[in-house]
Amino acid sequence: xxxxxxxxxxxxxxxxxxxxxxxxxxxxxxxxxxxxxxxxxxxxxxxxxxxxxxxxxxxxxxxxxxxxxxxxxxxxxxxxxxxxxxxxxxxxxxxxxxxxxxxxxxxxxxxxxxxxxxxxxxxxxxxxxxxxxxxxxxxxxxxxxxxxxxxxxxxxxxxxxxxxxxxxxxxxxxxxxxxxxxxxxxxxxxxxxxxxxxxxxxxxxxxxxxxxxxxxxxxxxxxxxxxxxxxxxxxxxxxxxxxxxxxxxxxxxxxxxxxxxxxxxxxxxxxxxxxxxxxxxxxxxxxxxxxxxxxxxxxxxxxxxxxxxxxxxxxxxxxxxxxxxxxxxxxxxxxxxxxxxxxxxxxxxxxxxxxxxxxxxxxxxxxxxxxxxxxxxxxxxxxxxxxxxxxxxxxxxxxxxxxxxxxxxxxxxxxxxxxxxxxxxxxxxxxxxxxxxxxxxxxxxxxxxxxxxxxxxxxxxxxxxxxxxxxxxxxxxxxxxxxxxxxxxxxxxxxxxxxxxxxxxxxxxxxxxxxxxxxxxxxxxxxxxxxxxxxxxxxxxxxxxxxxxxxxxxxxxxxxxxxxxxxxxxxxxxxxxxxxxxxxxxxxxxxxxxxxxxxxxxxxxxxxxxxxxxxxxxxxxxxxxxxxxxxxxxxxxxxxxxxxxxxxxxxxxxxxxxxxxxxxxxxxxxxxxxxxxxxxxxxxxxxxxxxxxxxxxxxxxxxxxxxxxxxxxxxxxxxxxxxxxxxxxxxxxxxxxxxxxxxxxxxxxxxxxxxxxxxxxxxxxxxxxxxxxxxxxxxxxxxxxxxxxxxxxxxxxxxxxxxxxxxxxxxxxx
Length: 814
Ligand SMILES: *Cc1c(COP(=O)(O)O)cnc(C)c1O
What we know:
Blueprint: H1 13-28, H2 37-65, E1 70-74, H3 84-91, H4 94-103, H5 108-113, H6 124-138, E2 143-148, E3 156-159, E4 165-168, E5 181-182, E6 188-192, E7 195-199, E8 202-206, E9 209-221, E10 228-237, H7 244-248, H8 252-255, H9 257-263, H10 280-301, H11 313-316, E11 317-322, H12 329-340, H13 345-355, E12 356-359, E13 370-372, H14 373-379, H15 381-400, H16 405-410, E14 418-420, H17 421-428, E15 432-434, H18 437-447, H19 449-454, E16 459-461, H20 468-474, H21 477-487, H22 509-534, E17 543-548, H23 557-573, E18 584-589, H24 597-614, E19 623-628, H25 633-639, E20 645-648, H26 660-666, E21 670-673, H27 679-686, E22 692-693, H28 698-707, H29 711-717, H30 719-729, H31 742-750, H32 756-774, H33 777-789, H34 796-808
Parallel strand pairs: 1-2, 1-11, 2-10, 11-12, 12-15, 15-16, 17-18, 17-20, 18-19, 20-21, 21-22
Antiparallel strand pairs: 3-4, 5-9, 6-9, 7-8, 9-10, 13-14
Helix pairs in contact: 1-2, 1-4, 2-3, 6-34, 10-12, 12-13, 12-15, 14-15, 21-22, 22-33, 23-24, 23-30, 23-32, 29-30, 29-32
Pyridoxal-5'-phosphate binds at residues 123-124, 127, 549-550, 631-633, 636, 658-660, 663.
């Protein structure tokens, strides 16, 4: 890697204060004396954005004029988190900002807190996209993130009096949003519906309606790279705002119909995670942003050219498809090349296949997107024709390869009834990757086995990562300072494998004690955060044990809550003596998709267990449980550094990678987890003796499915489990109502698809080992230090370097 230098501190804090004052005066229309924290936040955001502008322009110019292939990261979600602190860090303005706002009479923290977190993603997949564009910019690789600027992001989660999840809309654009720059002059037209006709022997699509895709540009500053890339999020506008004729007839609702229809496309993020939602609007969203992005890339790389030579397109930019959501881009590029630019099929296919690559994010078959052919035919008739033709060509290719007919049929992209987007992506691009070693292997062995047999060279792995800027440097300043002290340099922030230099320090008791002090300070800080944000009183002299992630059956929040209930019962019954109880505070955070019945019921159960346990004087000081509302990036940044034990307890073979697991290890939490996703690689790197492993392996899970799984057997066999489930069924957490959780209880006892019950005993047993270690703070913290020291591999910088080498075949700008 080339040596990178920090930008010279461009201004003094007094000058930066003046810049903020100027923004307040000329842009906000308030004086420094009138300004609130929210005003100063907007002004500071604009001031820092100005500092990044020149680097943004040079990066764009070098991207277009240089010979370095760019990366286009196509993703329906970018879960960015708050921007101000990150922008200040990367602009080298953190200290100037702190001093400047103090001189204006504010606390830096209050200004940073005034930012409203944009929630343009559901969870791991969207956060991965955000980490990746941060790393691309930090590595100096020319890149565009392309997505949708949803008007409403992921819902805000609250709980009602019964502990049920209540979803409220996320009005994130209700106040001035200073980061996005809307560029009406770089718009694109995206069309839908209508029919395909033949004119002069050529297919011509006559769409029925169109929307105007307007880009909103976000700066993506690299850390110490002097590069600023672009995140271009599309917003949908109507061409015919208003039907005056209807208005004049007093048909007011009809008058705004065209506008409503068009603008609906970017109105809301689908609040789904890991499940497929077959909604017409969702297909419209996908096509909307992908079509606009492909046309935009042509505009950017062939400026002002009427007849560009698009056979060079794959040398200009390579597109990564983040899951199947943008896969409609494959037939769209074919259509653009053939219908709009007159290329023949084979040339178009060569360009298209070279341009795209596909990241698969799941193993759950129900999460692989399949669209009804009739829906595609209605919305995108020309694309359906192209997909049919791609499928014909694919079948011929398989036949030529000697693939038998039955197998070829199983592999069909187009079945006559439906279109399988994962298969289209696999055939239509150059590479397919899974997101952790185990996941990539299972893709080849199971999910996409036939494809891997027919096209073995396409398949590769890139293990996920997280950005050390946000998730260590910003989230955990105490640990960051200690790491810098230990290594004698802060270069680790952009070269995270340097953390290995801490391995010898794990044997230095003084260093380990300093680490323990940082953890204690982070716990103390989180107690304050929890008091401010949730009104909770938390005992910081307890073990902080955290499970935060989307609520999904395969992630098995049920396993955790059953173990908590069992512990509660043991304390109540006196089966454990007071001396043997290790005081713990258990934190959950999880949103459930609004239509996901069992997931929502699990949230309700956790909330009501929390109520009972936290109000029971018998367990006071020994066990507390909190379901924190609205898990988001801000909560992650505050809770993860304070966590001592984290939970990664999905059923083996179901979590593709996980990235929460990486954030925790990098912040010195010990993990209790299964051999699933990236847990496998984390454990390999941090050492088996520094990781609490339990539960069935993928092979054992498969065997149990094959042998016939009977969860009731496990319920009968372990009295701890039986007691926990009986308490739920008996109404202990529902004021005596025995029906409240009946669907959940019945699922556990008769179905339990993700084998929570089968893994319960191993999970309950390993708690003793965890608690024994925790009673020896020096040894616990030594292992925590070793987790930090050996987790440098899980930087998203490393993930991006793997993509560059294995898939994109490009690199930093010269
Ligand atoms: C990291 C992160 C996730 C992903 O967590 P997993 O445990 O990998 O599922 C989800 N949501 C937020 C807010 C995150 O920061």
